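Run 2'-5' RNA ligase family protein through structure prediction, thanks.
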Amino acid sequence: MLRVNIIAIDVLLQPDLTMIGKSRAVNARLRENFPAGYELDASHAPHVTLLQRFVRAKDFDAVTAALTKVLVAERPTELRLKTKGYEYAVWGRQAVTAIIVERTPELMRLHQKVIDAVAPFSVSDGTAAAFVGNEINPTTIGWVETFIPKSSGENYVPHVTAGIAKEDFVKQMKAEPYEAFTFKADGVAIYQLGNFGTAAKMLWQNQTSEPRR
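Sure, done. The structure for 2'-5' RNA ligase family protein is below.
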């Protein structure tokens, strides 16, 4: 299945149709400002990251086995999630824009248990070859390398990345009144990452997950 030694993975929640529709609407606005930006589609799937790591391809089955035990106990599809606004980070000179999700005790517990399950199989020093695509920027590689501790635990910011645009446009969008909404997760999957941390290629889906629409 995997022809590389090390892969960059994203263990993620697959959002329901409510979030998919909202994130695609935001993505359309971003692409109006920056047409070269990516569209949310099968190779740029909307998602809520739980963990990003480098793992050895030969350990992938062990990773999924460990995660399955966590998911049986935590029942992530029963989580109720709520958004609270937009945020962005500048990657590769563009503003990667996200819909921020509130941290709840249940989500944080799931986040930590996923970290613990994957920890024995995590490795360092991944390269661009671990990702999908040929134009992986250094910021993307560094993000996965340092996800723990820079983006985990107290630093964990659950979100759905909606796309990229010019920073001044995203600042204006962020200043607009924001209408929060709630959504749920249809399931959990592992994707191989692409540039800008996109969920580029599905590698595994928990068998209790709802079919993707």
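The chain has a mean pLDDT of 93.
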